[in-house]
Specification:
The structure holds two protein chains of two kinds.
Chain A (H helix, E strand, L loop, with lengths): L1 E8 L5 H11 L3 E10 L2 E9 L7 H15 L1 E7 L1 H7 L2
Antiparallel strand pairs in A: 1-3, 1-4, 2-3
Helix pairs in contact in A: 1-2
Chain B lengths: L3 H13 L4 E8 L9 H15 L3 H12 L3 E8 L2 H4 L8 H14 L3 E8 L6 H16 L3 E9 L3 E3 H17 L11 E5 L20 E7 L2 H10 L6 H30 L2 E6 L12 H7 L10 H19 L17 H8 L5 H7 L7 E7 L4 H18 L3 E8 L7 E3 L6 E3 L9 H5 L3 E2 L9
Parallel strand pairs in B: 1-2, 2-3, 3-4, 4-6, 7-8, 9-10
Antiparallel strand pairs in B: 1-7, 4-5, 5-13, 6-10, 11-12
Helix pairs in contact in B: 2-5, 3-9, 5-6, 6-7, 7-14, 8-9, 8-10, 9-11
Classes of the chains: A alpha+beta, B alpha/beta.
């Protein structure tokens, strides 16, 4: 199972480091990463491997959400399937 | 490979355009619960519903979290109670209470199936059952009732039409303190589908399997935003294409959720209902989509054509995205649940008669319409007859969910709350249909019902 993490908000120092730290602790590998600034809004998207995490999906989502709140950003994780379902045949 | 545009498009649909899965509805057969003692029957029904749907809400919540898509309602539909209760002596309302208790235990939002199918006539049990509807709806919170009074194959049961006028009036009176809220949980159908996941008309048809998962999608807000992005001068070919593509995307998410819910619960997947279901949230409105096409207000001349195209394009896009399609599938046009419709009524653009015309081309019928509390029962019955005639002749589902709000008159405003929204009281034609409704009997099935 793979997940998509999206970080949306104002750019600042340490965003990738903060998210990566959580992923390292949870034993989650980053498969791909991209970042852009669209209309002054910073967007980072990570594709991650969720096949062997040491946290439940719920716990991971909460950790990311809490970190987002702390940094004034929106950080969410969703299973990759929802994007594939909508955009790929 | 990460496609930033696609990922952000999906996230925007969910976070700012009100994309949601409107409902995961578990259909449960109660045929094995039948018993000749009403108390024992009610107990069996409660036990079976709570056993089958034990994990429904938790599973829905897990899917919501993992996919990041809201699932607004989790619901249950059951075999028509008029059939299951026919052999039992006693009060049908006991079953309604058991159903209501089962919703509390399982945590679902609504349960449908307090239903009778009387399109060709009543059995003795049907008669007792339909009489019990006002009490059942006023004594319970989450139980929804429906009565099918016509089909294209059987014609229109005009005795049932007349009785439903009275049942609606009585249901309103018994819940007068809550503005007749019982009527918001009661639908009168022509050609009722057996696999509809939407309330208040959901029931688990007698041709359905033991247990099934049906999913209803939503997404008027997404459609509204998609149409805002194309040029105002775009012709209707481009408008229809935009609607189709958007419906496809919305429905693919519905299919994904349906597959996942079905797998996790170990229950057969039934259908995805391709409906565009509005909510009272600003922008999540069918009326706004119609206005996007160039009409000043929903209800202006051109509204029926706009709705016809919308309804058809939604089906074309949605059908390609789902393996099994069913239920009502199309655009809903409830008044109180759609902020744009409410505005159109307030502005004087939208009347009951225009809504009736719109029901010829949308997926259901006159829905969530508040009318004066002193509207006679035979007038309500005649409105039902008109809607049933549209359904019967056009071989489509039509329905009436109308609320004669006690003590209110045209120009007053009523608040139902939650997804049911709020509405101005709409004017009803004052001329009498009393002698027409008093005739009774059955309007014969149309010639094109003879297809064999």
């Amino acid at each position: 199972m793979r997940g998509i993490i999206t970080v949306i908000g104002k750019d600042r120092v340490g965003i990738i480091a903060a998210v990566s730290n959580i992923l390292v602790e949870a034993n989650i590998n980053i498969l791909d990463i991209t970042q852009t600034t669209l209309q002054d809004i910073f967007t980072m998207i990570m594709l991650v491997d969720l096949s062997n995490p040491n946290l439940t999906f719920d716990q991971l989502a909460k950790k990311l959400d809490d970190k987002g709140e702390e940094m004034g950003l929106s950080i969410r994780i969703q299973r990759e399937d929802i994007f594939n379902a909508m955009h790929k045949i | 490979m990460i496609n930033t545009y696609e990922i952000l498009e999906t996230i925007k649909m969910i976070s700012s355009e009100s994309l949601d899965i409107r409902t995961i509805t578990m259909g449960i057969s109660l045929r094995d619960c039948a018993h000749n003692d009403m108390d024992e029957l009610a107990k069996r029904i409660y036990d079976k519903i709570t056993r089958k749907a034990e994990k429904l809400v938790k599973t829905g919540e897990d899917i919501e979290k993992e996919y990041g898509i809201p699932i607004t309602n989790k619901r249950i539909s059951v075999t028509p109670i008029s059939i299951i209760g026919e052999a039992a002596n006693g009060d049908y309302v006991k079953i309604a209470r058991a159903m209501d208790r089962a919703t509390e235990t399982t945590g679902v939002d609504f349960i449908g199936g307090y239903t009778a199918l009387v399109h060709k006539g009543y059995t003795d049990g049907d008669r007792r059952f339909v009489d019990s509807i006002p009490e059942a709806l006023s004594e319970t919170e989450r139980v929804c009732a429906s009565v099918n009074i016509a089909t294209t194959k059987a014609g229109i049961n005009m005795y049932a039409v007349a009785q439903m006028g009275q049942v609606i009036k009585k249901s309103a009176e018994l819940t007068a303190k809550e503005d007749g809220i019982a009527c918001a949980k009661l639908v009168v159908f022509c050609n009722a589908p057996e696999d509809n996941p939407f309330m208040a008309g959901a029931f688990h048809g007698i041709g359905e399997p033991e247990c099934v998962i049906n999913v209803g999608v939503s997404g008027p807000g997404v459609m509204h935003n998609a149409l805002k992005k194309i040029s105002k001068d775009a012709d209707f070919t481009e408008v229809a294409e935009t609607i189709k593509k958007t419906a496809f995307k919305i429905t693919r998410v519905g299919q994904l959720v349906a597959n996942e819910a079905s797998r996790r619960l170990g229950v057969t997947f039934g259908i995805v209902d391709l409906s565009l279901a509005p909510t009272p949230a600003i922008g999540d409105s069918i009326a706004n989509i119609i206005e996007d096409m160039g009409l000043e207000r929903c209800g202006a001349p051109g509204t029926t054509a706009a709705l016809a195209m919308l309804n058809d394009a939604v089906k074309k896009g949605g059908t390609m995205a789902s393996s099994q399609v069913g239920g009502l599938s199309g655009a809903f046009i409830p008044v109180s649940e759609d902020a744009g419709m409410v505005e159109a009524v307030k502005a004087g653009a939208l009347s009951l008669e225009k809504l009736e015309a719109m029901t010829c081309v949308c997926s259901v019928g006159l829905d969530m319409i508040a009318i004066p509390g002193d509207t006679p029962d035979y007038t309500i019955a005649a409105i039902i007859a008109d809607e049933a005639a549209i359904g019967m002749i056009n071989n489509k589902t039509t329905a009436v969910r109308i609320i004669p709000v006690p003590g209110k008159k045209v120009g007053d405003f009523v608040q139902f709350g939650g997804l049911l929204g709020s509405s101005p009281i709409m004017a009803v034609n004052k001329f009498s249909s009393k002698a027409f409704i008093a005739r009774g009997g059955r309007i014969p099935a149309p010639i094109h019902s003879l297809r064999n």
